[in-house]
Amino acid sequence: MASSAADPLRHAMKLDALEQQLRPCLPSPLSEHCRLANITGDRLVFVVDSPVWNARLRLASAELVEMARSLGLGVNSVTARTSLQPLFPSTSADTPTWQQSPVAREALKEALAMLEESPSATTTAAKPGSPPGPES
């Protein structure tokens, strides 16, 4: 069982190492939007994240085939598949895009404290559309 489970891992590690060798021959913006997915027969199969990068990869296919041959691979063509998901996770998704300044944070704390101290806020909520103030 260990040997059958190791084969896909070895294949993935081999693809990753090969991708690291092929990536320098790709133009800078293209290298950020494509990833080597497989080697099928005499074809390098890449995954790209939009049709635009699919077209650009086709334009760079001659250099990729040359580089792969210089590495000892018997490839003759490059195929690209388009994915709808981003290929590399974005680290900016973890951090908020809007940072609150210390002054704004303090002003919000003061406003919240004023609302909590207000006697009308603790007794009953005002009806929508009615002006704030003492109730009759």
End-to-end separation in angstroms reads: 80 Å
CATH superfamily of the domain at 8-82: DnaA, N-terminal domain
Q: Strand fraction band?
A: 5-15%
CATH class of the domain at 8-82: Alpha Beta
* Rg, nearest Å: 29 Å
Order of helices and strands: HHEEHHEHH
Q: Approximately how much helix is present in the residues?
A: 40-55%
- Using the coordinates shown, work out and report the CATH topology of the domain at 8-82: GMP Synthetase, Chain A, domain 3
Describe this structure in words.
This protein is α+β, with helices and mostly antiparallel strands and 136 residues long. The chain has 6 helices and 3 strands. It is elongated, with a radius of gyration of 29 Å. It has helices at 2-22, 28-31, 51-59, 61-70, 102-117, 119-123; strands at 34-40, 43-48, 77-82. A 3-stranded mixed beta sheet has the order 1-2-3. It has a domain at 8-82: DnaA, N-terminal domain (GMP Synthetase, Chain A, domain 3, 2-Layer Sandwich), CATH 3.30.300. Helices cover 48% and strands 14% of the residues.
